[in-house]
Amino acid sequence: MLFSLTALAPSAAFAAATERIVVDRYTGLAIGGIDPVAYFTDSEPLPGKADIEVLAEGAVWRFRNEGNRAAFLAAPEVYSPRFGGYDPVGAAEGKAVAGMARLWVIWQRRLYLFARQDNRDAFAAQPERYLGDADRNWPAIQQGLVE
């Protein structure tokens, strides 16, 4: 279910690692309010605006402009971080570890977030090495996360 929101409380730095999508536990913001489409269009994490938001999959997503919001609404499975924003290296190890907005890679037209720089670097060097195990482990990891 998708619908727009307008104003929420300011973002806090703490992410909940028990949700299906990593969100700020105080505001419900995904990716700390970073526009997920900006990773693709601007090649960097850029903050979204509080007056351009969407609630999707239990998270609030912010966007820099209406065009990015429309792109996300048309294809949230493309623009939202894979594994709900959890680190794919952690998922490959069977763990739900929240990724951070500033540690990211786009690989095969999907966004991945990472908990640590060394995880990001290892994944960037050999994504296939981690994705097979992450894909196999993800259903069990999801079962342990709150809906």
Your description of this structure?
- With 147 residues, this protein is an alpha+beta fold.
- The chain is 33% helix and 22% strand.
- The protein has two domains: 2-79, no CATH class; 82-143, no CATH class.
- It is built from six helices and seven strands, in the order βββαββαααββαα.
- The longest helix has 17 residues, at 127-143.
- The model is unreliable at 1-18 (pLDDT under 50).
The end-to-end distance, rounded to whole angstroms, is: 14 Å
Strand order of the largest sheet: 1-4-5
Q: What is the strand content?
A: 15-25%
* Total domain modules: 2
- What is the arithmetic mean of pLDDT? 88
Overall spatial form: globular
- DSSP helix fraction: 25-40%
Stretches where pLDDT is under 50 for at least 5 consecutive residues are: 1-18
Listing every helix as H and every strand as E from the N terminus to the C terminus, the arrangement reads EEEHEEHHHEEHH
DSSP E strands, number: 7
Question: Key terms for this structure?
Answer:
147 residues; single chain; two-stranded antiparallel sheet; disordered N terminus; 6 helices; alpha+beta
What's the topology here?
Layout: E1 2-3, E2 15-16, E3 23-24, H1 38-41, E4 49-56, E5 59-63, H2 66-74, H3 76-79, H4 88-92, E6 100-107, E7 110-114, H5 117-125, H6 127-143
Antiparallel strand pairs: 1-4, 2-3, 4-5, 6-7
Helix pairs in contact: 5-6
In short:
The chain is of the alpha+beta class. The chain contains 6 helices and 7 strands; from the N terminus they run E-E-E-H-E-E-H-H-H-E-E-H-H.
